[in-house]
Amino acid sequence: MIKIKIKNLYKIFGRNSELSIPLVEQGMGKDELLEKKGHVLGLSNINMDIEEGEIHVVMGLSGSGKSTLIRHINRLVEPTSGNIIIDDVDITGLDKEALNNFRKNKTAMVFQSFGLLPHYNILDNVTFGLDIKKIDKLTSQSKGKQWINKVGLEGYESRFPQELSGGMQQRVGLARALTNDPEILLMDEAFSALDPLIRKDMQDILIALQKDLKKTIVFITHDLDEALKLGDKIAILKDGFLDQEGTAVDILLNPETDYVRRFVEDVNRGRVLKAKNIMQDASAISKDLLNGQSLKVKADDVIEKFIDRVVVDKPDLIEVLSENGSAIGYLSPDRLSKILRK
User: Fold this and answer.
1) What pTM, to 2 d.p., does this model score?
2) Residue 297: which domain range?
3) What is the per-residue pLDDT across 261-317, written as a single tens digit (0 to 9) for each?
4) What CATH number is attached to the domain comprising 294?
5) Which of 83, 93, 122, 140 has the fewest CB atoms nearer than 10 Å to its CB?
């Protein structure tokens, strides 16, 4: 089910910016618009459907419009034109009171800069959103402690932000957002300021939490590896335009533009693609292979995890298993070889 629908969204910065929409529609680009009209093109005719319960990654280089886009979803930025429909409600038409209620109850945001209150301890930072809602202290602190534990910070409740490392502070930011129990989680370059190992830990924490939470998450990044690891769907922006949108497999194996092709050309597919991404059903596999010797792998195993076993054991077929151990798909060594060479 579609949770967020973005329709014909334009954002042009500058006075009387709506007058420049026809020029952009006729093909005027970002540089020309700035030179001739003094307007800055943020987003041009963005159309995007974000499914409930998925992680939808929006990526691109600096200036591509990705942070501008995510800020439209809770109307921190007002559109020049277009609609943002959430649960069948066009939030571009909400008045101030309705918008405040929407922000309090529907969304939460995790920022790159953590955004913690230095004079609040960790527990008070985590329960800040509940305090604004005037939830009683006992309930809010109980809920806050639960999320502090879930992000691995048990025992740090009475500490202050300056006593924690960057990675720990970002865990606090994530716990604060989740304590508010939002339906939509907006994460703007949330892990970009972290060291590589801590960043990987945060990605793993988010993936683990999402298995249970099934939140609708919009995640902004400039890092393709992060996008491929986290995203159920990936949208790539360039100069305010949506260049390509699809699954990790779509983006990696079928780049539609030179811009996307340059993004993916150096990606190690073995580290990114999972068995479930490239498996086929039984109807696509010959009977000889189905009756042959098989190698069993888990659906979430990346190719790199099992490729050595394929080389050594030389199975006729790779059988892809669900978490409960049942076969959900198949992968022939020939298909695996073609994907890695593509």
Assistant:
1) 0.87
2) 272-341
3) 998 888 888 988 899 989 999 888 888 888 889 999 999 899 999 999 999 999 999
4) 3.90.1280.20
5) 93
